[in-house]
Every structure is written in C-alpha cells, then in structure tokens.
Amino acid sequence: MKYKRFFVMLLVLNIFYIFAQQRIVFLDPGHGGKDPGAKGEYTRNGETLTVYEKDIVLHLSKKIHDRLKTIAPDIGVVLSRNDDSFVSLEERDAKAATAIGNKNGLYISIHNDVSLSKTSNGFSLQVNTKNRSFAHALSNELEKITSTQMANRGVTDITEYKHQRKKNADIILNLGFISNDHDVRLLADNNFLDACAACIADCIKEK
Ligand SMILES: [Zn+2]
User: 106-124 pLDDT, tens per residue?
Assistant: First the structure.
C-alpha cells in the first residue's frame, strides 16, 4: 500500500511538472558593440540625425522585456545582450541554449532591414516550422498597429535566411528598412517602438 501511495504521488508530481514547465523567451537584439548593423540617416529641422540598427533593436528588445515582466511574470525573459556589447552569433546561440535548456522556449532575433533601394520598406518575419502559426498571428497583430505606417512584407521560411546568418533563432523579426526615409523616422520614434513592443509582448503572452 505504501508503494502505491508513493507512485500516485510521483504521478501527481509529474503532471504538475508538465503543466508548470516554465516558458522562456530569449530575446536577441542583433549586432552590438563593434558591429553597428545597418546605419540610417534622416533630417529633422535641418539637422542630420544618424541611427544605428544595434541601438534600435536593443531599445525595442528592452521594451519587450519590460512589458513581458509586467504582463506575464511567469514567463522567463532573457536577453542576448542588454548593453552595447559585441556578442558573436555562436555566443548568442550558446546563451539561448543555456537559457532555454529543456524548458518551453522561444528564441526571437530582432533586426532592421536595409536595402540599396531607398524605396524598399516594411516589416517581415522569418520563422521555423514549429512556430509558423505564432509568426502569422504576430504578423497580423503588428500589421494592425503599423497598417497606416509600415507595410507588412509577410512571413517566410527561416531556413534560407538562417543559411546566411548561421543562427538558431525560431523567429527573426526585421522591423522596417533603416535605408527608407519613412521607416527610419518611425524606428527613431519612441512611441512607435512602444506600440510595437506592446504588440509583440502581448502576442508572446497569448502564444
Ligand atoms: Zn541586422
């Protein structure tokens, strides 16, 4: 009888463990330190202002982190970098693997796009097979908040992109073209980044 009770307890603990398995979101702001990523310029009141992708994506990632801590304290959030430091792609993957372990993890890499064509604009997502439905939901929600401001370039398979970047991210978000005058002004706008961060954090919570 004693053993029976022990096994029942073990079973209950097992079920509890499965349901209590912590969710981990690994947020990876691209570039950093000696690697500034794409560089953009725009003029305001006759003054030329320069922005770097590494700063925009860090700013946005920190906002997503803070929002998630508020609305979903049960989700663990880890950043690949939280300052202007250089982290290699291999280090990012290693940090993600350590943070996620065997937990329920989501590895999101955040970038801006750049093109020689000044007219290219909008946001896009690349995703692996496992997170396809989440990426489409996120794409739709982002479109709602950016619809009058930033075009939705859609969701594509991550495999080709990963081939170039050699990163293990589940999702890569390319938010706006830093080479486009309209997009770069949005990316430099704190209110726009706040709205995007709220949208992304809400989608992660609902995942
Ligand atoms: Zn980038």
Answer: 999 999 999 999 999 999 9
Return d(Cα 162, Cα 172) in angstroms, integer: 9
As given in the structure block, the two tokens for residue 47 are: 């003054």
Collect residues with CB below 5 Å from ion ligand 1: 30, 37, 111
With CA atoms as reference, report the closest residue to 71 among 160, 185, 207, 198: 198
CA of 66 to the centre of ligand 1 (A): 22
Ligand 1 centroid, distance to 43 Cα (angstroms): 22
CATH number for the region 24-206 comes to: 3.40.630.40
What is the SS3 assignment for 1? coil
Mean pLDDT across the chain: 90
Please state whether beta strands 47-52 and 39-44 pair in parallel, antiparallel, or not at all (unpaired): antiparallel
Query: How high is the pLDDT of residue 172?
Result: 95
Which strand (E) or helix (H) includes residue 51?
strand 47-52
Ligand 1 centroid to residue 40 C-alpha, Å? 12
Ligand 1 mean position, distance from CA 188 (Å):
16
Please tell me the distance between residue 1's alpha carbon and the centre of ligand 1 in angstroms.
Answer: 61
Q: Three-state DSSP class for 185?
A: helix
Per the CB < 8 A criterion, the answer to whether 124 and 157 are in contact is: no
Distance 13 CA to ligand 1 centre (A): 44
Specify the pLDDT at position 6.
Answer: 67
Find the 127 Cα to ligand 1 centroid distance in Å.
Answer: 16
